[in-house]
Amino acid sequence: MEYSDTERVVEQSLEFPVTRDAVIEQIGTVEIESPSGDFVTIREVLDPVDEEGYLSSDALYATIVGNLDETFIGRKYYDDRGSVPLGTGADDDPDLSF
Description:
This protein is an alpha+beta fold. The protein contains 4 helices and 4 strands.
């Protein structure tokens, strides 16, 4: 499934509160596709997590999203606010005055 569908699948597939084991049993084989085309199962995402259960779909979704690897991040270091990355521009110019 697309990464953007994860929240919907979590909400529609489970009743809360739910145990970690129940999550893995019911939706653990669901694959999430990264923008680069790689796949990871929900089981793989939750394996290193020590939570025993989740009180709400928001809590489970936050855990899944928070444990996805860097392939799920868009362009690394991209800033759509127009700032200059540290060490590469105006911040480094000692003669610059505002």
